[in-house]
Amino acid sequence: MAKLQVAIDLLTTKDALALAAKIAPYIDIIELGTPLIKNEGIAVVTAMKQAHPDKLVFADLKTMDAGELEADIAFKAGADLVTVLGAAGDATIAGAIKAAKAHGKGIVVDTIGVADRVKRAQEVTKLGAEFVELHAGLDEQWTEGYSIQVLIDEAARAGVPVSIAGGVNINNVTAVIKAGAIVAVAGAAIYGAEDPAAAAKALREAIDAV
Ligand SMILES: O=C([C@H](O)CO)[C@H](O)[C@H](O)COP(=O)(O)O
After folding, report:
1. Which of 10, 59, 63, 193 would staple 15 via disulfide (CB 3.0–4.6 Å)?
2. CA 98 – ligand 1 centroid, Å
3. Probe ligand 1: pick from 6, 9, 84, max atoms within 8 Å of CB?
4. Which of 109, 185, 190, 203 to mutate to test the pocket of ligand 1 (most atoms within 8 A of CB)?
């Protein structure tokens, strides 16, 4: 069964915890977004894991160097999954994976900014990534002509476990899962909704219906 991951790109621990409490019944993975961790520090990871010990807590560190050191910080704080950038060197990714193995947790490689996402996804899977996030970041999404269809097409030919992040919403989540993504990542479609619980519930039902 494919998983639903909420990407919380709010800026305070208080708001993140309030959102997570509303949507918890519908989601599998709670992502603490990079801006949230930069604003609040790694303590937000600990606070979220304490509030939701039954969920996978995902620390979106987007590490580019010092892979083992940075991943270790997040795992010690309570993260189950931590991101390292696909644009980083193999040594950085291997270091993060070493930390994950030491904690019995996982590394997700984020392909933001990578030109050939499918090729890199296949390479880093061999290094031991838990899964690879085919990701168009917020700035890319706001660029004219952006379409999530590019990521959906890439997922269909990746041949390795992937998630899709970059504007997932109720109109495209079925295609995201049908393309083979094991995780659909939804940020603004949930935290920006008038009723986040209803939005998360609708996404959950659409995923489960595939
Ligand atoms: O990872 C993200 C971005 O780099 C800011 O942290 C987003 O959480 C990711 O793009 C998913 O968010 P939406 O595109 O709003 O669904």
Report:
1. 10
2. 26
3. 9
4. 185
Ligand 1 neighbour 166 (Cβ under 6 A)? yes
Domain range annotation of the chain: 3-208
Query: How far is CA 154 from each of CA 164, 165, 176, rounded to the nearest angstrom?
Result: 9, 12, 10
CATH of 3-208, one of 3.90.550.10, 3.20.20.60, 1.20.1270.20, 3.20.20.70: 3.20.20.70
In the reported structure, the alpha carbon of residue 210 is separated from the centroid of ligand 1 by a whole-number distance in angstroms of 23
Q: Would the pTM of this model clear 0.95, i.e. be above it?
A: yes
Reported in sequence order, the residue ranges of 48-130 that DSSP labels E, i.e. its strands, are 56-63, 81-85, 106-110
As to burial, measured by CB atoms within 10 angstroms (0-12 exposed, 13-18 middle, 19+ buried), residue 127 is: middle
Q: Would you give per-residue pLDDT tens digits along the chain (210 residues)?
A: 999 999 999 999 999 999 999 999 999 999 999 999 999 999 999 999 999 999 999 999 999 999 999 999 999 999 999 999 999 999 999 999 999 999 999 999 999 999 999 999 999 999 999 999 999 999 999 999 999 999 999 999 999 999 999 999 999 999 999 999 999 999 999 999 999 999 999 999 999 999
How many Å is the Cα radius of gyration of the chain? 16
ipTM of the complex: 0.96
DSSP state letter for 29: E
Closest ligand 1 atom to the C-alpha of 168? 16
In which residue are the tokens 């979106």 written? 60
